[in-house]
Amino acid sequence: MKTPVAPVAVLLLALAVRLSAAPDAAWLGHDRERPLPPVVNPGTFSTPDQPGVPPSDAVVLFDGKGISAWAAMDGSPTQWVVKDGALECVPGSGYIRTLQAFGDCQLHIEWAAPAEVKGDSQGRGNSGVFFGLGRYEIQVLDSHENKTYADGSAGSIYNQYPALVNATRPPGQWQAYDIIWTAPRFDAEGKLLSPARMTAFLNGVLVQHNAELTGPTTWIGRPPYQAHPERLPIAMQDHGNPVRYRNVWVRELGQHRHPEFVLPEALLETYVGDYGRPGQWNTGKVRRLPDGQLGFTFAGADLVLFAASPTHFYAKTTDVQVKFDFTGEKKKMLVTVGEDFSRAMVLERGTP
Q: Which fold has domain 9-256?
């Protein structure tokens, strides 16, 4: 009988719920009017030979074919390659990251260290899965009969928490992470409101139980948190070993009005500049911000714009939405309140 590579989704979610959670006081117990949960087809488990089918509400990041969901860290095309249905790290090519950004989520990702054992300790089958655009890592390592430091082994939150147990299979075999990620929260001034938390299973075995991260994970030292957006790309590490990945999917937790993306830096740079209409008071200025956002000064307000697509951006503190139209002779920005762009204000770039 083949051993399933199981997401164990029900147990994952149960363990990830905070102890302080309480029933919604707006509803009585067993209230027949209370909305029922949405129906999700759970898909199928993987086997060592065959990847499973993701849940019906998952965002599929890699299905064994194309890599359009991934890019180099600056948003340019990645040099990682697809071989035999797996996404393989090309040593020396650099980290890769998703174009889409995620906050609280359930991540399923399967990986395999090279079957041919080379090196030892941290030099053997090393990679990593990162949340927060490279800030927070759960270690990927060939830890089967491979001694290394505890907080650098497979299943560890790097340089912070060792795995509860070593549940790795031999090199060359597929391993599976199922992770519940809770992103850190910051207030408007950048003060930490709540730290990041992680619950993780490796091959169906609990290796991190609601661990509270002390800040970003780094090789040396434990730096404090620095404010950043709640939703950021997931990344995978090039550590010089041809580690392979397959069946990568994510389920966002919570309600979001729009998807978010961190676009290529070269594209974001094209939007920077002054926009306006001749003789009109309503001018706008677009500038770059960290982590793939744009700053937009308009009507006396400073807004942060988040990308919902390569040309469509929106603010979160007010219902302002923006689309860039560079298809014609003049480069234009359409600004509206709400979803209706048919009545949008049109600003032209370079107009005083």
A: Jelly Rolls (2.60.120)
